[in-house]
Amino acid sequence: MAYFVADAHCDTLYARTREGKDAQECQVSARKMAHGRVGLGTFALWPGTQPPSALFYEVAAASLEESARLEIPIYKTLPDMPPDVPGGVLSVEGGEAFMGDMRLLGEFLDAGVKMIALTHNRENELAYPALGGDTRGLKPFGREVMRELNRRGVLSDVSHLNIAGFWDVMELSEIPPVASHSNARALCDHPRNLTDEQIKAIVARGGFIGINFFSTFLVEQGEAQLSDVARHIDHIVQLGGISTVGFGSDFDGIGRWPQGLDGADKFPMLLDLLERWGYKSEDLAAIAGLNLWNLYKRAESVA
Question: Distance between CA 27 and CA 267 in Å, rounded?
Fold first, then answer.
């Protein structure tokens, strides 16, 4: 059976604007999305790690401009039903793109951004990253941003956020929170992954967790296999997350991935494996795309 697929995170726009890749070189393209039945991709506006801090806004804004050249529609408002042709929505990965200025946040939200990851791998004006080791929670500007996201019906993404910031988002978000591209720490002990307690909190709030295909977040040693992605999905399902878990590939932002899972055209391989593991069609449909789709639609209704 063919399923509607939705992906919560890719870095394709950065790969095209900052790394000079053309569509055919990217792991995500209109052609590959169509082949993989990806009806909705989430394209991150990522400021990157290399430019001076004064350029974070400009780098993210350049990715926003590039989104108009993706050869797929970018939705400000989602269609009534999941599309059977490729389309996309925008997110921001790293609140440093706002430069501590609510007006710049407003520019991105007015452009149709539907999800904000408060941090990437560096401290910014909003919060502290998972890789930084800091135990402090959201900063005052981060709390101000959270209020605006609640008002505008925009999802708060806790991927890359430290644990204290995570629990602040759980408290402050009026919309079910998202970990757009994070895995289970019980299976791979990496600070970018979620503890079972965090997973259960997102499940309880009716949020979303997108499994990341980066080998480093899937296995602690060696190269990940397709079955390792399925193991992380299954772990979250066993914690009550059948309506929570889905995909957050991180395509075009990772250097290592499970063999055979190297682009947006390969999602059906993963779904075929889950079917062989005994997953029923209604559960496969939820994991493939409906869990993420339903949350995006719920957030739109809040706005």
Answer: 12
